[in-house]
Structure formats: structure tokens, C-alpha cells
Amino acid sequence: MREFEATGKTVIPGNLLHKLQAVLRSYSVTEADTFQAMRTCWKENQYLLCPHTAVAAFYHMAQESTSSSLRVCVATAAAAKFPEAVEKAGLLPQPTPELQALDSMPTRYQDMKQGQDSGHAQDQNTNSALQVDIEHL
């Protein structure tokens, strides 16, 4: 990890890399593909995918007829968290009561300096939007 933090890159040892390559795949999906997967899943299952999960679902749909491999697609978030993406896919957002309740709840955050451990930051309570110091990102 120190190598990665210092240089922005790292080398995975050959034996570990081969094991990872045996079980992991990467795949590029366009925004249009993502929205298509969201629409397809809704049409076939009446299940609204978040855009992140739709990327995995698109890969699954693309491989379905050419592979007998078993795959698992884990939904990573609620689609209700991404109403703009749902609308861009031509679908109707379905906000949940739990997410709607968040709008009226107080926000808690910690001001932190780069490299600071979260145990040493001072807690703040506010009703305003989440505050992030992006100067050090």
C-alpha cells in the first residue's frame, strides 16, 4: 500500500495476479448500455436497478448466450439514490420512505486534514448539506 500511495501504482505478484485473473473479469459499458440494462431489468423483472448495478447486469446480459459460467450480480445501491439516472433511462424514480426521511435528518460530519485519523477529528452536527473539503482530494 505504501508503494501505491507514494507512486500511484503497484505491481501485483505473478502468482496472485494469475489467481485473480482466473476469477475476475473487467468489462467496459457505455452510459447508453447502462440505461438499456436498467430498462431491460425493469421490463423483465419489474426491478429498478441503480446505475452501478446496471453495469454488471449489462455484462451479464451480454454474456448470457455465450457462456455457461455461473455469475452473481450484487445490487450495490438502491436505484432511488439515483433519480436522475433513472429518469435518463426513461423510467420513473421510486423514492423510498427511508431515503425521503434522510432529507429531514441532521447531518453529522467531521472536518479532517489530509492524512488525519478519523479518531482525532472533531465531530460537527448540522442540518445543512454534507460538507466536504475537496481542496485535498
TrEMBL record:
Residues 113-130 have a biased composition (Polar residues). Residues 104-137 are annotated as: Disordered. GO terms for biological process: 2-oxobutyrate biosynthetic process; serine family amino acid catabolic process. Coiled coil: none annotated. InterPro entries: Threonine_Synthase, TrpB-like_PALP_sf. GO terms for molecular function: pyridoxal phosphate binding. PANTHER family: THREONINE SYNTHASE FAMILY MEMBER, THREONINE SYNTHASE-LIKE 2. This is Threonine synthase-like 2. The lineage of its organism: Eukaryota, Metazoa, Chordata, Cephalochordata, Leptocardii. The gene is LOC109471146.
